């Protein structure tokens, strides 16, 4: 399993430069917002965490449809499916999700404090936004695995994947933004939404790979 | 150890491609599946490998012990696609499959030498020619141990020398008590292999 993780990370770094694509898209989304809403610093600081979350959500959808497609195109998927006695298929999917998250989504989390500065988010808010992203974005990848597995046989499945999984990611977005807001706006609490966000990630870490494994099993032809 | 196929039918997209196939293989035996394009050779192999559900009938594998409870666990499937990543080097690809598939047998270097590619293990897989890619995929059969080899047109793209070398590898596998089912339209140089002729329609 470690071998699979290392292989996918290596592939992601070497071939796709997916990390850079996502980070640049994230930068583009966040950088144009201040131009759009105008130079009202208080307003920017208030919507900053939300914009960071929306940007990270959209950026992490990029490339998600390729999660299994590369393996399908070169025949590796058959071999991964074929060794399901040795490695539980859901676990294989889980490891692939982790590798995808490390390569494509973790850089977004790392650059988010920098982008938060564009939005005049106070330091505590930056910390809150980054930590909620760190905890919440794996859920998006695990949900995305289901969409990617369903659309694995479709050559242009990217849009379909986004449409399938976007509604499911809404709770993650809601609680992620609520927690980041709670850290700065005084009456709102931070811990409850943060804990619910963690629960969502743990929940989808189990449900997502299991559902994706089912979808992959019936997709083979 | 015994691989038995009973009354097997396979279908693609709801259309029955073959039906009522039965055969049984003991250790050291090979079966060549021949027939025109579209006769269902690949479907048969994928069904035996457990990648496609059988329309009816069943595939049984017995005597594999705890390591190989069923055909899927006991087989190497070599399909049309090689299952290698173009961005990784040949050695990285093989090392990954050796670890992931388990039951390591030959080291990566020895396997590459067995298929005559020891010079180019450090190159990215994407730089190789068609025949060299096929030989890398064949090397995968050697790095981890499986008693059953399911081969779909294994020699496509190979030159004569490589074909001869591959025949030798298959004979060694059979002598070790392995089982081979190969779909092919070329003779594979296995003298005593049985033949299953599939007709179109």
Quickly describe the structure.
The complex is a heterodimer of chains A (221) and B (201). Chain A has helices at residues 2-16, 18-37, 41-61, 66-73, 76-82, 89-118, 123-150, 158-184, 191-219. Chain A is mainly alpha-helical.
Question: What is the second-level CATH architecture of chain B?
Answer: 3-Layer(aba) Sandwich
Shape category of chain A: elongated
User: Radius of gyration of chain B in whole Å, from Cα?
Assistant: 17 Å
Whole-number count of domains of chain B:
1
Strand portion of chain B, in percent? 25-35%
Task: Describe the secondary structure blueprint for this structure.
The complex is a heterodimer of chains A (221) and B (201).
Chain A lengths: L1 H15 L1 H20 L3 H21 L4 H8 L2 H7 L6 H30 L4 H28 L7 H27 L6 H29 L2
Chain B lengths: L1 E11 L2 E11 L4 E5 L6 H8 L7 E7 L8 H4 E4 L11 H12 L6 H7 L15 H14 L4 E5 L7 H16 L3 E5 L10 E4 L4
Parallel strand pairs in B: 3-7, 3-8, 5-6, 6-7
Antiparallel strand pairs in B: 1-2, 1-4
Describe the protein.
With 221 residues, chain A is an all-alpha fold. Chain A has one domain. The two termini of chain A are 25 Å apart. The relative contact order of chain A is 0.15. With 201 residues, chain B is α/β, with parallel strands linked by helices. Chain B has a single domain, classed as Rossmann fold, CATH 3.40.50.300. Helices cover 30% and strands 26% of the residues of chain B. Chain B is built from 6 helices and 8 strands; from the N terminus they run E-E-E-H-E-H-E-H-H-H-E-H-E-E. In chain B, strands 5-6-7-3-8 form a 5-stranded parallel beta sheet, with helices on both faces. In chain B, helix 3 runs parallel beside helix 5 and helix 4 packs across helix 5. Chain B starts with a strand and ends with a strand. The relative contact order of chain B is 0.21.
């Amino acid at each position: 399993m470690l071998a699979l993780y290392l292989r996918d990370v290596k592939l992601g770094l070497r071939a796709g430069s997916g990390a850079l694509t996502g980070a640049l898209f994230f930068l583009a989304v966040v950088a144009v917002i201040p131009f759009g809403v105008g130079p009202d610093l208080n307003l920017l600081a208030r919507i900053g965490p939300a914009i960071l979350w929306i940007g990270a959500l959209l950026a992490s959808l990029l490339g998600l449809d390729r999660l299994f497609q590369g393996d399908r195109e070169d025949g590796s998927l058959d071999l991964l499916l074929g060794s399901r006695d040795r490695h539980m298929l859901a676990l294989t999917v889980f490891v692939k999700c982790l590798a995808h998250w490390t390569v494509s989504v973790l850089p977004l989390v790392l650059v988010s404090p920098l982008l938060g500065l564009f939005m005049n988010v106070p330091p505590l808010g930056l910390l809150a936004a980054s930590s909620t992203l760190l905890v919440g974005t794996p859920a998006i990848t695990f949900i995305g695995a289901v969409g990617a597995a369903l659309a694995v046989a479709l050559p242009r499945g990217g849009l379909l994947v986004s449409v399938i999984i976007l509604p499911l990611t809404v709770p993650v977005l809601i609680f992620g933004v609520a927690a980041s807001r709670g850290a700065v706006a005084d009456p709102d609490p931070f811990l409850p939404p943060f804990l619910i966000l963690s629960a969502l990630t743990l929940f989808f870490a189990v449900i997502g790979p299991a559902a994706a494994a089912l979808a992959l099993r019936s997709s083979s032809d | 150890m015994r691989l038995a196929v009973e009354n097997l039918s396979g279908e693609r997209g709801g259309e029955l491609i073959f039906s009522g196939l039965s055969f049984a293989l003991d250790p050291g035996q090979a079966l060549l599946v021949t027939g025109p394009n579209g006769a269902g050779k690949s479907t048969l192999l994928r069904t035996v490998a457990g990648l496609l559900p059988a329309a009816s009938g069943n595939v049984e594998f017995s005597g594999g012990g705890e390591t190989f409870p069923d055909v899927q666990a006991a087989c190497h499937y070599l399909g049309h696609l090689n299952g290698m990543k173009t961005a990784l080097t040949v050695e990285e690809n093989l090392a990954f499959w050796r670890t992931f598939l388990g039951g390591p047998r030959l080291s990566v270097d020895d396997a590459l030498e067995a298929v005559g590619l020891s010079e180019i293990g450090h190159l990215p897989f994407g730089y190789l020619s068609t025949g060299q890619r096929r030989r890398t995929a064949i090397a995968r059969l050697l790095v981890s141990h499986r008693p059953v080899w399911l081969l779909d047109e294994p020699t496509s793209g190979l030159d004569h020398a490589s074909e001869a070398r591959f025949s030798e590898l298959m004979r060694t596998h059979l002598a070790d008590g392995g089982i081979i089912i190969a779909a092919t339209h070329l003779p594979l140089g296995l003298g005593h292999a049985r033949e299953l002729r599939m007709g179109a329609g």
